[in-house]
Amino acid sequence: MYQDLAVLAAFLIVYSVFAARLESRLFSGPLIFMLAGLLMGPAVFGVLQPQVNHAGLRLLAELTLALVLFSDAANANLRVLKAHEGLPLRLLLIGLPLTLGAGWLLGLWFFPQVPVLELALLATILAPTDAALGKSVVSNPAVPAPVREGLNVESGLNDGICVPVLLALLTLLLDVHSEAPALLLVEFLLVELGIGSVVGLVLAFLVWQLHRLATERHWQTPIWSQLTLPGLAVLCFAAAQALGGSGFIAAFVGGLLAGYLFGRSKHHLLQAGEEFSSLLSVLTWVLFGALIVPMAWALATPEVWLYALMSLTLIRILPVWISLLGTRMGLETRLFIAWFGPRGLASVVFAIMLMDVPLQAENTLIPTAICTVLLSVLLHGLSAVPWSQRLGRRHLPQ
Transmembrane stretches, by residue range (predicted)? Predict the structure, then answer.
């Protein structure tokens, strides 16, 4: 245990010292974390031997996703949804449902032996995009502002939208022999989504009231105030889970309301939470590389790799292209938006969650999800900087 802790601490120190140098190159942070976990883990050098069971790995992944969902929702500028020809709204309301449908239909062709509901789960796992993996695009000033903002808002909200879809499918899957699937969905909406939404709204409002009272009476200190919103994110998640609701929905809804209520002060208050979620993300990616990647690699078939490639290309590009019909965007800009839908943390967390679910096609679904993330980390990481710079040159004023 102490050797693992020393290895992780040494890696974090080295990366923190050279982060600017490393991230200015073609390799993204998640790619480096994943490769470090793979190389240090049991599959290669074996200096990192994490003794983490599925329950521990799932708790880490779920807590990381809850913090990311809360931060993304709180940071989301909903006014941007209708700006720039409604780009984020088009991607979320047209592109995302079409992506889910395309992933399911192509799954029927590639994996005819896999049950229909499990194919729908696979499509849902691979639909959300990752803002962290697309950081070199959404933070690159060379990329036109409408494109950056559109992709950033899309990646910040689509994982929260996919969570209830995933939970609904799991509800149906775990009770597949039920004679009343409609009643199951109604119960799910009332219990999982209802409790999660109410918990998120109530806790966000109460914490905002406490924060406002403390601010007016000067009871706060700058350091401890930064723990308010991270604590709220964890409280929303844990309270909803304890009450039988969805912690992810609670974190997402709580983040949306907190972002509205706290206004301009939210950016300062979210800083510590974002740093904490970044640390958890690093641990998740390293463990993903050390434990999950070798397992998925051993089970991957040519069909799995081909579907993974299709998920990053046809399944993403065609729906986004359709969603952008009627806009004045050029051909290359549309292709750029369609290509940069990297799969990352949400897909990893969803896949880890499925490891505890009795699936008929577990050896197909989880390797496919992991291989898709692997390809995404590599291909999107290598293409982000060169294509962003090219797009920026094309949009320079003449």
Answer: 29-48, 91-111, 188-211, 231-258, 279-299, 305-324, 336-354, 366-385
